[in-house]
Every structure is written in C-alpha cells, then in structure tokens.
Write a structure and sequence with these properties.
It contains 4 helices and 4 strands. By secondary structure, the protein is α+β, with helices and mostly antiparallel strands. It has a 4-stranded antiparallel sheet with strand order 2-3-1-4. Helix 1 (16-29) packs antiparallel against helix 3 (72-82). The radius of gyration is 17 Å and the shape is globular. The two termini are 30 Å apart.
Length: 113
Amino acid sequence: MTAYAIAHLKTPSAHPDVLEYMERVQSTMDPFQGRFLVHGPEVDVREGEWPGTVVVIEFPDMDHVTGWYESAAYQDILPLRTGHIEGVAVLVEGVSPGHSAAGLAAALRATTS
C-alpha cells in the first residue's frame, strides 16, 4: 500500500545548508522510488494555524519510505535541513482502494458498542 513522508516545515529557510539538502535529496529518494507530490508551496489555511509550508513525498509502501528515511544517504544530509528549519516529519501509510470515511466510522462504531 502506498506510503508517504510528510513534513510540516514551520520555519522555511533558504540557508546555504538547506539549499544543499534540496540539491541532494532526490538522489536519496530515487533508490526507494520516492517522488514529490507537494514541495513547499504557500498554503491556504482554512482552519487553525499553519505556520510555514508542507512537503509530501510518495513511496510504494512503508518498507520503501522507512528504508529511505533510515538510509545512510538520507541520514547524512538530514542535519542540513533540521539544523536550520523547525518542523515535524511523519511516515504514514495511505488508505486501501475503496476506502471510505463512512466505512471507517462503521468499523469504529462496532468496536465501541
């Protein structure tokens, strides 16, 4: 099942280290079939507060996204970003084909009755 690396970058920066990170990150993703879906746009906040921007990277599955994040190549460049940008990163599995919110609600109701 498709999986994602999602980062909420609260304090985006064009620091030289961050630019180097950006120049090198794709080569760390390629062996794990990662591709950017969202990469740092200005966000349109509709509810709550959202300082900064967001990055979403798609991978074939959790093994690929975990392998990428834990790889020596990625860990080598990670401090270039984290040393200059405050943020949060998560790895998350997507939903299966046919997923519905109503179906999930029904399953949750069944476990709470």
